[in-house]
């Protein structure tokens, strides 16, 4: 296990591969662990894949005063500085996607691109199921008993039950609408069409997306497209990472592989 210290508090992370850095940020359910297959696929493309446990999750310290979105974003900033990582690609899911957006908004010169999976474009798109569930019950219901998901499900009991209500209650301080509407970083939004926790972008929101932002739906996936539609997700990520720096992900729709999944 790899770790850094923030004061006296342990922050756990793992790393695979060599090459340009890609940071994977987990969501409200699970930990770094469900990114393992995606990290392996990314490392095979000559990237260096990092994943960390955010405050309150996995093997990172449990400190409720750190569970706000602002503090989680500060953790990402500290991690990148500690690791000596400069310009980076961020891949965030749920909570991790919110952290990625906020970090890029505050530090646009440091983020080359973002893939935001299950990102709520506004706070009302987070369903009551996420707000009322516990980390364990949500993991059990979303991941089921599929052996391929055991690694992801096994870390759910490590999460502090307070991390969900504290982080969700702090979303009002972020201003989700303002963040994505003013972000200049190239960003690809990815949603599972059957996600029970985060509503997919509505048509009027898609029309309002900035020119450097694009949305793709994976029709066979729910809240965990990186697990539920693994091969397609990994191909999409590979295509996204292969874009030239600064290139809009809207160019992905020119590929037949993704045309059928764009609304």
Tell me the overall shape: globular
- Looking at CATH, the homologous superfamily is Alpha/Beta hydrolase fold, catalytic domain
Query: For the CA atoms, what is the radius of gyration?
Result: 17 Å
Main sheet: strands, sense, barrel: 8 strands, mixed
Total domain units = 1
Characteristic terms for this protein:
single chain; 263 residues; alpha/beta; Rossmann fold; eight-stranded mixed sheet; 12 helices; 36% helix; 19% strand; globular; disordered C terminus
Give an overview in words.
- With 263 residues, the chain is α/β, with parallel strands linked by helices.
- It has a single domain (2-259), classed as Rossmann fold (3-Layer(aba) Sandwich).
- The protein contains twelve helices and eight strands.
- It has helices at 36-43, 69-83, 95-106, 128-132, 135-143, 150-154, 163-169, 176-182, 203-207, 225-228, 230-242, 256-259; strands spanning 2-6, 9-16, 20-25, 47-52, 88-93, 111-117, 187-192, 213-218.
- Helix 3 packs across helix 8 (176-182).
- The longest helix is centred in the first third of the chain and has 15 residues, at 69-83.
- The radius of gyration is 17 Å and the shape is globular.
- The termini are far apart.
- The model is unreliable at 259-263 (pLDDT under 50).
